[in-house]
Specification:
The protein has about 280 residues and is α+β, with helices and mostly antiparallel strands. The chain is about 60% helix and about 20% strand. It has two domains: about 120 residues; about 110 residues, Beta-Lactamase, CATH 3.30.450.20.
Length: about 280
């Protein structure tokens, strides 16, 4: 019995020691768990603090971005207003300049129209590249073609007098080649009734390319039929006068010859007045 008690006491003692060790280990585990839990709580608090700080920083960044965006929008709005004001002022200035230029052109065209009407001249402008000619104050009774006439004078050959076309073409060609500063030629043009009307055509190249080839020619056509008629009348009058002078000269020569054959001439005496005396007049 004593051995059993001793053994029981030893078992009990060993059990108590194991229990004590277990309690110690359990307490250590609890302390470790508490430490870990405390550390986790601290980390959570730190994370919460960091999160709060980040939120504050994010809020500050957002506020700063909002302020910068507001400043940018304000500057953009101010710049847009200034640009619009400058653009409107520039456009308004360009519009006024354009209106003034159009008015000058309109006034110039009006003065040109009055000048052409007053002089009776026709103004023409020939685009040699497009072959198109435009005419201002065009004489209605002439058969000169309008709009497209090509790049040479062949289109008007049928309405120019055959005796004048070669001279017209020669003068025009010399001017296009730069041999003469401008061309001025008078020729006859067919009218709507089939008659011939004298005109004075003056023209000049107003545009050339880099190689010197003519691109545009402008000029005027003037009705000189009355001048030509006056010249014809004057020529006939001169011919008549020359004929009369020649006839008078012949008559005077005949009279002189007759006087040369007459042996009597009249002399005036300072004392006795007029007396008749014989004279033999020889013509040298």
């Amino acid at each position: 019995m004593t051995g059993i008690r001793v053994q029981s006491l030893e078992y009990l003692k060993a059990h108590n020691e194991l229990k004590s060790k277990w309690d110690t280990i359990n307490n250590q585990y609890q302390i470790s768990a508490l430490s870990i839990e405390f550390g986790v709580a601290e980390q959570k608090r730190e994370i919460a603090n960091l999160t709060q700080q980040n939120q504050i920083k994010d809020l500050e960044i957002k506020q700063q971005a909002t302020r910068q965006l507001f400043i940018f929008i304000s500057l953009l709005l101010v710049f847009s207003i200034l640009f619009f004001a400058y653009f409107w002022r520039s456009k308004n200035k360009q519009f006024k300049v354009k209106q003034a230029a159009l008015k000058l052109v309109s006034d110039a065209k009006e003065r040109l129209a009055f000048a052409l009407w007053g002089s009776g001249d026709e103004l023409w402008d020939w685009d040699l590249q497009a072959g198109v000619i435009t005419r201002e104050n065009q004489a209605r009774d002439l058969r000169l073609p309008n709009e497209y006439i090509g790049t040479d004078l062949e289109k008007i050959k049928s309405v120019v007098h055959p005796d004048d076309f070669a001279h017209l073409q020669e003068c025009f060609s010399q001017h296009l080649q730069g041999k003469i500063e401008f061309y001025e030629v008078s020729y006859r043009v067919m009218t709507q009734t089939g008659d011939w009307l004298w005109v004075l055509d003056r023209g000049k190249v107003t545009a050339r390319d880099e190689d010197g080839a003519a691109l545009r020619v402008s000029g005027t056509i003037k009705d000189i039929s009355q001048i030509k008629a006056s010249e014809l009348v004057l020529a006939e009058l001169n011919a008549t006068l020359e004929q009369r002078v020649e006839e008078r000269t012949i008559s005077l020569q005949q009279s002189r010859n007759e006087l040369a054959m007459n042996p009597v001439f009249v002399t005036r005496s300072a004392k006795n007045g007029i007396a008749w005396a014989p004279c033999y007049w020889c013509i040298s």
